[in-house]
Amino acid sequence: MTNTSGPMTAEELQSGAFTHREALRHQWHGVALAREVDTEPVQVSLLGREYVLWRTPDGSISAAPNGCPHRNARLSEGSIRGDGCLACPYHGWAFDPQGRCVDIPSSGPDARIPPKAHLAVTNCEVRYGLVWLCPGDPVGTLPAIPQEDDPAFRRINNPVQVWRTATTRMVDNFLDISHFSYVHRGTFGATVDPLVPPIEVTELPDGYTGYAYEARVGNPSVAAAGVTGQTEPEVDRWMTSGFHLPFTVRSTVRYADGLEHILLLVSTPIDDVTSYFTFVVWRNDDFRVSAEDIIQFDRRIGVEDRTMLETVPGSLPLGNEGVVSVQSDRCSVEWKRRLVQMLES
Ligand code: FES
Ligand SMILES: [Fe+2]
């Protein structure tokens, strides 16, 4: 038996199961691209539960658990009526942006609406082109990206994918640079020195915790064409990698010419072993290269991570049993320590 709050048992820590923990319901989780919530309701899953997202007449997005109060039909299979209400596909009950049931067609327009017919809407925010949900009362904050409001930067969004791996394994991977010369041989890692300099975990600007490092990386033509804007076979990058609890990782890259490339890696638990993944990029480039050309290199890097992670069985153990960590894992070990603290709260 596992607890939803309080100290995690040794068995829980070793199994790596985490999505049953109440604390996660009070954090924000990125679940969809806002632009994909359009004329039809959209189904997403978070922490083992389904939600429906729908666009309301004022252009904002509403969210609710994906079950109709009447007979539990999936509201995401329904439609948006002409008046902007979300309509259930089964018997046509209709819900306004606040989740109030405003129409029960079988009862007629003058009938009383039972109080239990209303939907309990879920906290929903749109930020960075993404829809974020917080199923409980929000305790956590959304990760900060000051470049979002800086006109020198453009934002590039990417599709949300489903990865067959635990969200915890993804964050562990995104904070780890010692896999570069192995997993990323096919993109930028072929010439990266596998020796990782000592990692010092510190508080980074904007509310992230992580480390700064320098790297000389390969600059294949696909990268040179758009991402780095440089043509040398190798380029120097000044980087930081940091986490924002529970599961976002920000990676910043600065090149010698002042070009900055900020990556927000958003991983979201569908359940203990399945996750959403999307990434958002901000760049202060000259806007000459198309967003597509910029992004294809990062996408190829993502495929390399995904291919590796989907072959690693099971969830990431959250304690010290079942894994061995070395100095290059320091940041991920610190993230895990703070995550467990959060899960136990
Ligand atoms: S199940 Fe939704 S209206 Fe009947
Ligand atoms: Fe990677």
Question: Can you walk me through this structure?
Answer:
Helix content is 18%, strand content 30%. Helix 2 (167-174) packs antiparallel against helix 7. The protein is globular and about 75 Å long. Strands 11, 12, 13, 14, 15, 16, 17 and 18 form an eight-stranded antiparallel beta sheet that branches. A four-stranded antiparallel beta sheet has the order 5-6-7-8, with no helix packed on it. With 345 residues, it is of the alpha+beta class. A hairpin with a 2-residue loop joins strand 9 (123-127) and strand 10. The protein is built from seven helices and 18 strands. 37% of the residues are buried. It folds into two domains: 22-134, Rieske [2Fe-2S] iron-sulphur domain (Rieske Iron-sulfur Protein, 3-layer Sandwich); 146-344, Naphthalene 1,2-dioxygenase Alpha Subunit, Chain A, domain 1. Fe (ii) ion binds at residues 173, 179, 183-184, 305.
Offer a few descriptive terms.
345 residues, alpha+beta, Rieske Iron-sulfur Protein, Naphthalene 1,2-dioxygenase Alpha Subunit, Chain A, domain 1, 2 domains, four-stranded antiparallel sheet, globular, binds FE2/S2 (inorganic) cluster, binds fe (ii) ion
